Amino acid sequence: MWIPMDSIFDLGLPGPSGNENDTYVSGDSIYKVNNLLNSNGVCKLLNKVLLHNIIFPNTFYKLHGFAGYNGRSVMPVLIQRRIRNAQPATQIMIDTYMAALGFTKQDSVGKFSNGVFLVWDVVPRNVLVDSDGDMYVVDAEIGRISEK
Q1: What is the distance between the alpha carbons of residues 131 and 114, in angstroms, rounded to a whole number?
Q2: How many CA atoms lie within 13 A of 51 on its CB side?
Q3: CA distance 24 to 11
Q4: Helices (H), strands (E): how many in the chain?
Q5: pLDDT tens for residues 82-94?
Q6: DSSP state, 123?
Q7: How do residues 31-43 score in pLDDT, each as one tens digit?
Q8: Residue 20: is it exposed, middle or buried by C-beta count within 10 angstroms (0-12/13-18/19+)?
Q9: CB 128 within 8 A of CB 136
Q10: β strands within the chain, DSSP E
Q11: Quick one: how far is CA 49 from the chain centroid?
């Protein structure tokens, strides 16, 4: 599906944005419009999404479509379930959660490996915890060890 940039606000209310994503919130969904600045292209981004969905299935992404300016830009639009009534997790909570998933802490904060995948940027701004203590990694950088 193609979403012209003049219709982008139809996705929902603008939410928090970062270096690579503008977000839009609608009901139980968050749309992330990725500008590909940090992704090295559409294929690399979609590969990262597939890896995210393998490791963190409770916050899986789906490809919703593409946005952009006709003839000038293409930006993938991803959709993810909105985590309600949650707050940023502490790094200790994150480290414990990642260990429970079989990952070992690496040489820098928020970086983990399980021998197959390397996951980094798993820090409080990218991980939520709800009132039941359930953890949700909503954004992380991921690669296969063989790709590094």
Answers
A1: 28
A2: 19
A3: 6
A4: 2, 13
A5: 999 999 999 999 9
A6: S
A7: 999 999 888 889 9
A8: middle
A9: yes
A10: 2-4, 13-14, 21-26, 29-34, 61-68, 75-81, 86-88, 104-105, 112-113, 117-120, 127-130, 135-137, 141-144
A11: 8
